Hints:
This protein is of the alpha/beta class.
Amino acid sequence: MSYYRVYKKRDLYLNKLIAFQDTEPVKVVTGIRRCGKSSLLKLMIQHLMETGVAKEQIVEMNFESHEFKDMTAESLYRHVQGLSKPGKRMYLFFDEIQRVPAWEEAVNSFRVDLDCDIYITGSNAYLLSSEYATYLSGRCVEIKMLPLSFREFLYFHGFQLRESTSALGGTKKQAVDQSGERYELREVFDAYLRVGGMPGVADVGLDQERALTLLDGIYSTVVVRDILEREKRRGQRQITDPVLLRKIILFLADSIGSTVSANSIGNTLVNEGLLDGGTRKNAPSVHTVQAYVGALLESYIFYEVKRFDIKGKEYLRTLGKYYIADIGLRNNLLGFRDRDTGHVLENIVYFELLRRGYDVAIGKIDNGEIDFIASNTEGKLYIQVTESMNNEEVRRRELAPLQKVRDNYEKLILSLDPGLQTSFEGIKSRDLIDWLITDR
């Protein structure tokens, strides 16, 4: 395959890799399967070759390939040594390297024995577990990759943003496809809410049936390869019941944006008859549920968000929330529905905050809740997410927790229908779609 096949750019991540090029740390790209990690390595290889690195200095191996199916750490080491060019810096790219037993020993040896720059990917957080840290503690940098943002979705699906004059004399943005057809941004955003942001969906277009078929394949691969098979490779027997695993996945997918606990998951599965036997005696233990949820977090299909007591200034140990890495995967699991749009929008905003480099928590203040406290080195941002701000009762509900926060950090309400008022006593109200497409 030619390195000069055209790969759609993911500049947010490529620029991070370039920033660490030729530095000592091993560059580790993590994220849910099929979110674009392999393509990112290809983009980095293209960058190297465009900036003068010879093809013979690049070693590229994808361990999903049958060619490397039975490779061990020892045979990997010998293979790379055989390809190395004396007196030249080598660039090593290892895709899904966690499939090689004791791979970290080989990678550590390359660091010691070769003049090289190393890039690896993995679809499971086990890649960065304590065993790995023992070998490369302080010598790796993690680049966390996510499915497409809404801006990237527009680009991947061939849309360009255009400004036009609105009826009231202002400007509004529209999406223009490759044939020149204009669409309202809300229309394209609705498509994003349906098919999600997996890059592969762009290859099949916005045809709902084909998109769901592709997403079903991704889901099955995540569950089978990254959870069930991985447990076998680790020699563990905690995640052994594929039926229970699917029930917990469905529960978490249905509960995005709601506070849950391992105890409540087990009880709900029993109460709603989702487990065979349906009795309290057959309920999975809290420890079992925690193990299954932990496996889902490790495979990057779900992300957990802790709650933070704003007045007490401490993280709370109970009742966090979970968000799913891609809303298209959720629709594939549960079907399309409109009844929980608010939580779906929260899901979108949560991952956009991660892309923008924030640490994110849920805010608790007295008996109220703030959807997100987003923190970075420059300060904090308090965010509420709601479908519409036109209803007086909804406005009061969304504003009340923010009004109790006494510091001077920015407070923001994001909604699909923000109404005419742009602020309420210093609390800003913004169109969510406009916020998503605005450059950081």
